[in-house]
Write a structure and sequence with these properties.
With 250 residues, the protein is mainly alpha-helical. Helices cover 75% and strands 3% of the residues.
Length: 250
């Protein structure tokens, strides 16, 4: 095979093994394969999914790297306990969000936000640079100009929160900020069309200004208030939707 042919072939292999990784990852998150359970043999999986061994091995390597699988010679490939999975990996989170019960998902996201956002805001107030201020300010401006465009509002809101995490200049917070593009998107969709947006905009402005001013404790308190109100907004929107559904004739 010529070099040009190999080069052309590589993207196809990569695409296939990424699709396989998605299929297997989602299957594991759904519980199709339980913790501690051995997967079918490589040959059986290849036959069932109609893929090459090369693609299957690449997909398996990816899941091993994410802590989801472990492979041992003469034993096979086994699903590891969830406590060993890399839950900060964007693919792992994406698969979990795709199959999660909405109530459980929201509860865990609220817990994560309460635990991390006020601290991130406080640290950002201490360490944010002028470049960080610009990024936060641009995201806030985008929220203001989003108007009735819900997608633009959600995107700008996500950028705002991510910029705060990055402004901590703490790489451990960065990972959480990166995940929010996936983890919080569904939550933000729930409230984006709600009547709370004027209040939320005022809260974001106040938090932004406290970070710019370097008032660490104020940033912490404002962030905590924002998360608390966002929690109430989500619950309110969900109650309203449930009540409307019950009133509709069957």
């Amino acid at each position: 095979m010529k070099l040009s042919q190999i080069t052309d072939f590589q993207p196809m292999i990569r695409k296939t093994h990424l699709q396989l990784g998605d299929q297997l990852g989602l299957a594991i998150m759904r519980g199709d394969f339980k913790e501690g359970e051995l997967l079918p043999s490589e040959a059986k999986l290849c036959e069932t999914l109609a893929v090459s061994r090369t693609s299957m091995r690449e997909a398996m390597r990816g899941l091993v790297a994410k802590g989801i699988l472990e492979s041992k010679s003469k034993v096979g490939t086994r699903v590891r306990k969830a406590e060993n999975w890399n839950h900060l990996d964007v693919d792992v989170l994406r698969w979990q969000v795709a199959v999660a019960d909405s109530e459980i998902y929201l509860r865990k996201m609220f817990q994560l936000r309460y635990a991390t956002e006020p601290a991130a805001a406080s640290i950002a107030a201490q360490y944010a640079t002028s470049e960080d201020h610009t990024a936060i300010g641009e995201a806030f401006d985008a929220m203001q100009t989003a108007g009735k465009d819900l997608e633009k509002w959600i995107e700008a809101d996500l950028r705002f929160h991510k910029a705060i995490y990055l402004a901590t200049h703490n790489e451990f917070f960065w990972s959480i900020g990166q995940l929010f593009n996936i983890a919080l998107k569904e939550m933000f969709k729930i409230t984006a069309s709600g009547a709370h947006r004027p209040r939320a905009l005022a809260e974001h402005r106040a938090l932004m200004e406290s970070i710019f001013a370097g008032t660490s404790e104020a940033a912490r308190e404002l962030s905590l208030k924002m998360v608390s109100n966002a929690t109430d907004d989500v619950l309110s929107v969900r109650r309203s939707a449930s009540s409307k559904l019950q009133r509709e004739p069957t």
